[in-house]
Amino acid sequence: MELLNLNIPSWSDMAAWIPEAVLCGTFLVALVGDLLVRGRRPWLPFAISVFGLVTAGSYAVATVLHADPAAHSIMGKLMVVDGLAGFFRLLFIFTGLATVLFAWTSEEIMGRKRENKGEFYFLTVLLTLAMCVMAEARDLLMLFLSMEGVGLVSYVMAGYMRTSLRSTEASLKYVIFGAVSSAIMLYGLSLLYGMTGSLTFSGIRAGLLAGGADPFGLLVAAILILAGMSYKIAAVPFHYWAPDVYEGAPTPISALFSVGPKAAGFALMIRFFYTTLAAGNDPAAGSTLIADFNWPLLVAVMSAATMIYANLVALRQTNVKRLLAYSSISHVGYILMGFVLLTGEGLQAILFYLLVYTFMNLGAFFFVVAINNHLKSEDLQDYVGLGFRAPWAASMMVIFLGSLAGIPPFAGFVGKLYIFTAVMDRQMFWLVIVAAVNSVIGLYYYFKVVKAMFLTRPAEGADASPLKLHWLQYTILGVLTVPTLVLGIYFGQFKALADQAIALMTVHM
Amino acid sequence: MGEHILSWMTFFPVIGAAVIAFIPSERKEIIKTVAAAAAAVPLILAVQLFVNFDRGTAAFQFIEHYTWIKSFNIEYFMGIDGLSVPMVLLTALLSFLCIIASWRIEKAVKGYFALFLLLETAMMGVFCALDFFLFYLFWELMLLPMYFLIGIWGGPRREYAAIKFFLYTLAGSVLMLLAMIAFYLNVQDPTTGGHTFNMLYMMDQSNHSAWLQMTNIRHLLWIGLFIGFAIKVPIFPFHTWLPDAHVEAPTAVSVILAGVLLKMGTYGILRISYPILPDAAVWFSYALAVLGAINILYGAYCAMAQTDMKKLVAYSSISHMGYVLLGMAAFTTAGINGAVLQMFNHGTITAMMFLCVGVVYDRAHTREISGFGGLGLQMPLYASFFSFALFAAIGLPGLSGFVSEAMIFIGIFPVYRTVAMISALGIIIGAAYVLWMLQRVFLGPRNEKWDSLPDINAREMFTLVPIGLIVLILGVYPMPVLDLMKVSLNHLIKVVAG
Q1: If residue B272 lies in a helix (H) or strand (E), which one and from where to where?
Q2: In sequence order, which residues have a C-beta less than 8 Å from that of residue B218 and are 6 or more positions away?
Q3: What does the alpha-carbon distance between residue B247 and residue B310 come to, in Å, rounded to a whole number?
Q4: In this complex, do A408 and B141 lie within 8 Å of one another by their Cβ atoms?
Q5: B220 and chain A: CB distance < 8 Å anywhere?
Q6: pLDDT tens digits for chain A (509 residues)?
Q7: Nearest-CA residue of chain A relative to B154?
Q8: Nearest to A121 by CA among A37, A51, A18, A21
Q9: CA distances from B19 to B28, B113, B149 (A)
Q10: pTM of the model
Q11: Which among A424, A455, A492 is the nearest to B152, CB-wise?
């Protein structure tokens, strides 16, 4: 019974978990504080959340910069803080902080009468915590708990606007899809436990290597688990909830959803599949421990289907938010390419892509938030002339969209370059060609937005007054623009960070 | 600036663009002056380059070589040889003149000049880069400014033209990207044993992996690269974006598009495809010659059918780029030297033609050929400039177009006789559409509608005269440009054809 095998944790192990402890404390203090002021002073939970996220973030930065090669076990073998967890923790805290700050200026969140505005902030902190745990889980129980944790907070946040039909519908859809996919995954997990008799990832691997697992049963378990996780990252065919939820939820929350839980899903997928099923970096041995099954082909088909489907549907969107929702699904397709072969290079490329994706996607969604404050609309038609009404913000949006489209000299291009190179290195040419064609399709719909903002002349009599954004909005958009540009031309150090995260991932413990 | 002359030439314009971004948008004159100054510096440096360039060696000169991103073996590697020098000179000259020609832009002045300078940086970078990644970066950097320049400052159908240009070019670029990754993974850096983006290493066949030595793979990669470059040239059947882009683009952008951007396609083939995949180049040469002939004839016939002056000039560009392909396919000294000379000459002649079309469009706000008549009486000076450009375009002896076309035919005739003979028909059709337009616009009875049109002004002359002089001088004595490229191109022929 491994579960009872709880050793007294050493101080250094517990110290590695300080950011999570801080987030946990922040959540509780902000919750209680909000209750004490009866929700009438939203700045209180806001300030507490920002302070907590910044504190946790600085710890997280310090650990990443230290490149601590040791893996710290947390609560026995339930969780581990290693390179991979450190990398994702930083990503999540950054996302949480950016969202909290931007939401403060959002009319959708702060403009509501009567309802409680403070709960957005501590819920975001809680979601950040749950995502961090997801990247640290290395035990089936913790895997399931963390996924459910992220899921539950997400359901609540999607339904944040209780009086809005769209928001409520989004939340309900999210719950139902979530419950079904959890059940599917749980079944897969139970099969895996039954075959190997172990709950920890390393125990499962040992069990599989020892032999005796029925190959067909293993295949079924792996596919069920993959399906459950694909729901989390919104890959085709488990994506149906995503566009509705992204469109229905308030935009700052959609921004968070399109980056955070998705990256967390990838973190978990990487750790789970790489530590339990991957055969290692030897291409001759096949890529997984599942005998006689072409695992790469399965993931590659999923990846290709995701990008083709999402891109084709995105072409027809006229609502910018929904367009970005489909775009974020298509990016899952690109990211999955790195997952096809379960090689170190591929996983490193995924991490780098997620880093870049965080900046550019948050930027694009935040722009929509800022514009929505003024226009109360996300319709493409209402974006006409924005390039001349808000030139700086619109120019930054062009950079985000160009980066999402993957054209140099923006960061998105470098992300794609690494992914393409990793796949081409293993001679999977058809997948790269599909992805390349998809980049061209992507360009068309991203530039539909650019066209509306800059090229189309506004109708006679249309409002052409300059739009002035909140100073905080300019600052955050600027902070997101800088890495979107810099990572396009100077990415060596940041790629090294991603490489280090994979290199320091604990596989056998 | 002596040490890093290429970097200064490449990045000075973008520094100017950054400065412009911070000038208040009402100060239009200041913005224009800064833009002109930022484009003048590369031109002055280009003159210095022309003087100091060592014409006796095929090696790359003015090299700048630094590690850029070590983990991915990307280098900041700039250098020029006889193939790139004429293009660099052309870019510096036309960019400066186009800034002057854009003086009358009134809409969003700040954005226009900032984007134009960014475009110059990208073009310059393409011609100087010797690292494939760097090359690709500059190649793609061109797309965004071009998209906005056509899309914001263009004519009525500019939205369509802009996105069409963007999509076509990007489709070509992704093919090039895949080829680039394939080279990266399969070319070994002889000093470190790792992968490399260094073009010079890629050109050395002994660095190629076994996979890259397979004939089928080489042919496939060649075709991938070729389509990428062909879209830019443009080569039939990838040409349909060009007339749209030209018709909608403002004058100065048309000049850059025809004068410099089209050359990037043929430059890319000569710089990358030929030396890296020489055997595939030989394998493809007949097809290239045929495509060249199709371009010449098809472009010329289309030009004949046009009613819009600018569209006529656009199609004539397609036709003239066909000569370049023809010369490239020959692998003879005369052919390839003629091809590169034609790239340079077409850049100058087409620039003149587009500038002239711009002059009349600025005044009359129409380009319908049938709407004019007897303009020679109304604007005599203008008529002589335009006629000069048109005669240069049809290859009148004594003007530069004749020299390069003659060299190309001398080069191709012994190699592909039939193709050469069919292509020669293009010269006749070329003369036909040009003279016919000349007649309809400048001769005949004077159309009273245009009584108020003033003749060409001093600023417009300032843009036309330097190019005109170059066309004239190179027509009589082409050696200044031929001397620049001769040694490098002969070396290239030796590499490709053995």
Answers
A1: none
A2: B212, B277, B279, B280
A3: 6
A4: yes
A5: no
A6: 445 455 566 777 778 888 899 999 999 999 998 888 877 788 888 999 999 999 999 988 888 887 777 777 777 778 888 888 889 999 999 999 999 999 888 887 787 766 678 888 999 999 999 999 999 998 899 999 999 999 999 998 888 877 788 888 888 888 998 899 999 999 999 999 988 888 888 888 888 888 777 888 888 998 999 999 998 888 888 888 888 888 888 899 999 999 999 999 999 998 888 888 876 555 445 567 776 778 888 889 999 999 999 999 999 999 999 999 999 999 999 999 988 877 888 888 999 999 999 999 999 999 999 998 888 888 888 888 888 888 889 999 999 999 999 998 899 999 999 999 999 888 888 999 999 999 999 999 999 999 999 888 888 777 778 888 889 899 999 999 999 999 988 888 888 888 888 887 766 54
A7: A455
A8: A51
A9: 13, 11, 19
A10: 0.93
A11: A455
d(CA B276, CA A237): 43
Q: In this structure, are residues A201 and A138 in contact, taking their beta carbons and an 8 Å threshold?
A: yes
CA-to-CA distance for A83 and A69, rounded, in angstroms? 7
Query: Tokens standing for B397?
Result: 């002896």
**Contact status, residue A135 vs residue A85, Cβ threshold 8 Å:** yes
**Set of chain B residues whose Cβ sits within 8 Å of the Cβ of A343:** none
Report the amino acid identity of residue B58: A
Tokens 């929509």 belong to which residue? A368
Q: Which residues of B touch A436 (CB under 8 A)?
A: 174-175, 177-178
Q: Cα(A432)–Cα(A435) distance, rounded to whole angstroms?
A: 5
* Contact status of A489 with chain B (Cβ, < 8 Å): yes
**What DSSP element (H or E) covers B129?**
none
Using alpha carbons only, what angle is made at residue B92 by residues B90 and B94, rounded to the nearest 5 degrees? 65
Residues B481, B341 contacting (CB under 8 angstroms):
yes
Task: Tell me which residue has tokens 């031109």.
Answer: B43
Strand-pairing partners, residue B78, are B64, B129
| DSSP secondary structure of A275-296 | HHTB--S-GGG-SBSSTT--HH
Neighbour-count burial of A376, counting CB atoms closer than 10 A to its CB (0-12 exposed, 13-18 middle, 19+ buried):
exposed
Tokens standing for B111? 């954005």
Q: How far apart are the first and last CA of chain B?
A: 39
Contacts of residue A408 in chain B, CB cutoff 8 Å?
A: 136-137, 140-141
Question: Which of B71, B151, B178 is the closest to A454 by Cβ?
Answer: B151
- Residue spans of the domains in chain A: they are 294-509
Q: Does the distance separating the beta carbons of B170 and A407 come in below 8 Å? A: yes
A413 touches chain B (CB under 8 A): yes
* Radius of gyration in angstroms for the set of CA atoms belonging to chain B, rounded to a whole number: 22
Task: Provide φ and ψ at A60, rounded to 5°.
Answer: -65, -40
**Does an H or E element contain B54, and which?**
none
Give B143's contacts in chain A (Cβ within 8 Å). Answer: 407
3-state helix, strand, coil in chain A (%, to 5): 75, 5, 25
> Do residues B352 and B262 make contact, with C-beta atoms less than 8 angstroms apart?
no
Q: Is the ipTM of this complex over 0.95?
A: no
